[in-house]
Amino acid sequence: MKKIVIFDMDGTLLDTEAMYMKANQMAFHEFGRKFPKEDYLQFVGASEESVRLGFQKLLGDEELGNQLANRSSEIFIDLISREAPDLKPRVRDLLNYLQSKQVECMVASSSKHEEVVDLMQRKGLSEYFTHYVGGDDVTEAKPQPDIFLKALEVSGYRPEDAIVIEDSLNGVRASYAAHIDVVMVPDLIAPDDEVFDKALAVVGHIWDVIPFID
């Protein structure tokens, strides 16, 4: 049995990816631009700074990219301040199961550390997690392995003791680069050949990860 499960947050524990996309699309609309879902998907699992740089490249305009990134962040914060995102189906069931088996759990998310802690508290999940790592705790964002290497560092476990639960290609790439087994539970992004090559498994629902932890 694995000793620790490292959860991504956005799109894995919480149904936030649709809210991020809505915030981005609202910001682009304010600036008279379109931001289709196809453009958004490349940023799933990316840190705030990676999104900022991506907007600059997408638009070919550094200043406009910064403005849109800032406005998107403002809109998203407003959205979640008014209503915390829903839990993904059966998340609490899985966390209760892992707690009963004395398997440690932590969160490693591209979102800011403070935001991760706040959302876990607001959703009543804090009791399940021993550690948190946010995108602002590391230098390089997913798909680089830094966030998962940091998770191992703060938890004190070895790669072979851990398993990552992710919803994004960037997360799968980061886990693979950190030499940690990863199971993908797709949210907005369908798995491709690279995912099937690098992930231990792809499952339809988060509850289905149990056989790969036991």
TrEMBL record:
Superkingdom assignment: Bacteria
CDD domains the record matches: HAD_BPGM-like (cd07505)
Official protein name in the record: Haloacid dehalogenase superfamily, subfamily IA, variant 3 with third motif having DD or ED
Lineage: Bacteria, Bacillati, Bacillota, Bacilli, Lactobacillales
Record organism: Aerococcus suis
UniProt-listed Pfam families: HAD_2
Gene3D superfamilies: HAD superfamily/HAD-like (3.40.50.1000), Putative phosphatase, domain 2 (1.10.150.240)
